[in-house]
Amino acid sequence: MAHNVLVTGGAGYVGSHICKALAAAGHRPVALDDMSAGHLWALQWGPAVQADVRDTAAIIQALRQHRIHVVVHAAQCVRRDGASKRPDRHYEVNVGGTLAVLQAMREAQVGAIALASSAGVYGSPLRLPVSEGAFPAPRSSLYASRLMGETILADYAAAFGIQYTALRHFSVAGADPDNELGPLRRPESHLFPLAARVSLGEAPHLVVHGDDYATPDGTCIRDYVHVSDVAAAYPLVLGRLLDGRAAAAYNLGSGEGHSVSEVLAAMGRVTGRPLPRQVGPRREADTPTLVADIGRARAELRWTPKFSDLNTLVKTTWAWALRCQQEAGSAG
User: Fold this and answer.
1) Which among 166, 170, 295, 325 could disulfide-bond with 119, CB atoms 3.0 to 4.6 Å apart, if both were Cys?
2) How many structural domains comprise the chain?
3) How far apart are CA 295 and CA 255, in angstroms?
4) Which of 56, 109, 97, 242 lies closest to 164, judged by CA?
């Protein structure tokens, strides 16, 4: 059955890929975005509403006007640089935005929501790969605010009967295999696009944040999952969500870990270009290793990552970076 789906943050990196996946599955995505970090060119798969995710009245209007059946809440403050210095921003957007969306849903009588959450809620888990049952222990205000969003959803479900699930994204990377979408943040803070920029000569070097972790090569190990694989989980969860069979949380990862040094080596192999790097200090709240147990998503959603091998992650990132450079040159 086709559904009208409001996607908050629908013009952003992950949100736009979710809109594309929903449209490909026969649904009608409606993107809601304030365009502070989104892009007009990413709005290709349905109507768009320009509004702040904290604007309850605007969200109510969008829900009613477009006859929304379910919400995908992907609008988040995700900047982690200096996270300890701006906890107000994280709570204002990530918690305040979630409350505004839920209040609007109650007013418009929309009863189901899928939250784009984060593996950062786990902190440094004692057992790896980490399952959804692990005790959450976020190490920064950014991830604490994401966990708080999940808690709010659970409370609203208990009090008001809203159906919900949280999809915990691990380290999202890559670009649309059709090369229609990809990361384009300025300033950029994620490893894959940063490495691509250095390979293109747009930055002098890449900073590796610490090489003295308790890992085989000293650099952090992360579970990198392709953005299109993450997006593909959202159409799959809708049916379970709307009939009340969705779990409270699902891990979305590849189930495998790669170190920062492994990623940079793969980028060098794909591009055939030098990738200068410098070692910098560790970042606050970084944990040495974080890898997902994706058994629940495989079993319940029949979800399997298709593009999350390291080679495809790098190749799609590089193809997108080349397109962006070519288009910037043409515009100049």
Assistant:
1) 170
2) 2
3) 9
4) 242
Query: What is the pTM assigned to this prediction?
Result: 0.97
Burial class (CB in 10 A: 0-12, 13-18, 19+), 203: middle
CB atoms within 10 A of CB 217: 13
Domain for residue 77, yes or no? yes
For residues 132 and 119, what is the distance between their CA atoms, to the nearest angstrom? 10
Domain-located, residue 239? yes
Splitting the chain (332 residues) into consecutive groups of 10 residues, what average pLDDT does each group show?
97 98 99 94 96 98 99 85 71 96 99 98 97 96 96 98 98 98 85 97 96 98 99 97 96 99 98 96 93 99 99 98 89 62
Say how far apart CA 115 and CA 134 lie, in whole Å.
19
CATH of the domain at 327: 3.90.25.10
Evaluate whether 108 touches 63 at the Cβ level (below 8 Å). Answer: yes
> And the tokens for 232?
């593909």
Residues 196 and 229 in one domain: no
